[in-house]
Amino acid sequence: MKYSRTSTVALAIVGALALSSTLVACGSSDDAGSGDSSSTTLDPNTKVTLNVVGLLPGAKPEAQKALADEVADFQKENPNITIKTNDYEWKATTFAADLAGGTLPTVFEIPFTDAKTLIANQQISDMQAYLSQLSYAQNFNKNLLQYGQSEDGKTYAIPAKSIYAVGLHYNRALFTQAGLDPNKPPTTWDEVRTAAKAIADKTGQAGFAQMSKDATGGWQLTVDTYARGGRLEDGKKATLNNDATKASLQFLKDMRWTDNSMGANFDYDWSGINQAFAAGKLGMYTSGQDVYTSLVQTNNIDPKTYGLTMIPLTGSNSGVLGGGTMAAVSSKASNNEKAAAVKWIDYHYLRKYTNQDAAKKNAEIQVASKQPVGTPELPIFSQQQYQQYQDWIKSYVNVPLDQMTSFTGKVFDAKLVNEPAIATQDVYKSLDTVVQAVLTNKDANIDQLLTEANTKAQRAIDAA
């Protein structure tokens, strides 16, 4: 991140990212099924074609060029490996079918919440021997690495990118049009509500919006719950009908039906809400602090309109939900594909954090293609290592960090809280319908909805 804090505090917060059970794949390789060596080192004379996750669907040509340039440079370094990128957006509602259908690439990205389940189901490859070849293999933050490890300590999924804490994203232009100070974003939920109504009344746009489908409704309602000090699980017991979740839903209901400040679209998923925000159709929403990169690459946001601040926190047990992305390899991958995969994971995701030349080269490619450099992140290794990386790329940073300081200057003082540990996606899905009902039915009974959702969640937890 572009933060300056002591390494002790940073590691304590990253260590709090207790995140646990998402993309698998089948790929193609010239060596597949014929004479595949048991060695973990790829013979430079062996040719491998490796299918990997690329960009989100709809990424701008500039982002596509940056990735193509990176692939070309990788292939110059590894002339026996051919990389084929596949546009992909992970969704809880489609992942299982993609996995079962064998349509995913060989190297894929998964949320921290899904790794343990995929390991237990033998759906991703044991990468321990391949990962051990990397010079920095022992330097990962162990509190992050453990969520991609089996019970015997072998690494299957590798922390790769987007280690995030959820923030409140806001449109500075709409704030100004509504007579609000964009340099003084809301710090309480009451202020969020007031700002949302002002934006809706004075600009005609939604003042605040909430994701509501494909498990994102439950994900962001969990964010709201944590911010008010509640939790959705207590060990193996579902606690969806807690007071903080009820208060969060009442807050949404009041903005929707009393203030009329949430617009007319109540069917947002992650990509949909990003698109609406970048188009200037909504004033505020919550999501991971790393989303700025996607807003640029896919949604063509005007940087001048972007602002990021902390979500309001109330109560002694309040906290910020944290998460992230891991890289994994299909269980169907051959040994040569695994060896090639770890080279790609190193080159594409991780080397820039540990090697000055790689950091500068990556930044140069991104800047040349007008892509973001310097979007705030949480460190995969140590805070010291990340600070070193920041120093390496300092002259290339092109994101409006001065419009994010009310987040970056405070996030290390907050408690980061793990996502629900058991049946995470099922818990989220059970809450999607609750969020949808509150936003579309004026007479929605919050207590009844949460009781029903809690029963569904408990069944999923018991079955996990």
List keywords for this structure.
alpha+beta; disordered N terminus; 464 residues; D-Maltodextrin-Binding Protein, domain 2; six-stranded mixed sheet; 2 domains; 43% helix
Order of helices and strands: HEHEHEHHHEHHHEEHHEHEEHHHHEHH
User: How would you characterize the largest beta sheet?
Assistant: 6 strands, mixed
CATH superfamily of the largest domain: Periplasmic binding protein-like II
Number of strands: 10
* Total number of distinct structural domains: 2
* Number of DSSP helical runs: 18
According to CATH, the fold-level topology of the largest domain is: D-Maltodextrin-Binding Protein, domain 2
Poorly predicted runs: 1-37
What is the percent of helical residues? 40-55%
CATH architecture of the largest domain: 3-Layer(aba) Sandwich
Mean pLDDT, all residues: 90
What is the distance, rounded to the nearest whole angstrom, between the alpha carbons of the first and last residues?
35 Å
**Cα-atom radius of gyration:** 22 Å
Q: What's the overall geometry?
A: globular
State the name of the first-level CATH class of the largest domain.
Alpha Beta
How much strand content do the residues show? 5-15%
| SS-based class | alpha+beta
Structure commentary:
53% of the residues are buried. This protein has helices at 7-15, 61-77, 92-101, 115-120, 128-131, 142-145, 172-177, 189-203, 216-227, 243-259, 270-278, 292-297, 335-354, 356-368, 383-393, 405-408, 424-440, 446-463, and strands spanning 48-53, 81-86, 107-111, 158-171, 233-234, 237-238, 284-288, 306-310, 320-329, 416-417. With 464 residues, it is of the alpha+beta class. The chain has 18 helices and ten strands. The chain has two domains: 7-163 and 323-403, D-Maltodextrin-Binding Protein, domain 2, CATH 3.40.190.10; 166-319 and 422-463, D-Maltodextrin-Binding Protein, domain 2 (3-Layer(aba) Sandwich), CATH 3.40.190.10. The two termini are 35 Å apart. Helix 17 runs antiparallel to helix 18. Strands 3, 4, 7, 8, 9 and 10 form a six-stranded mixed beta sheet that branches.
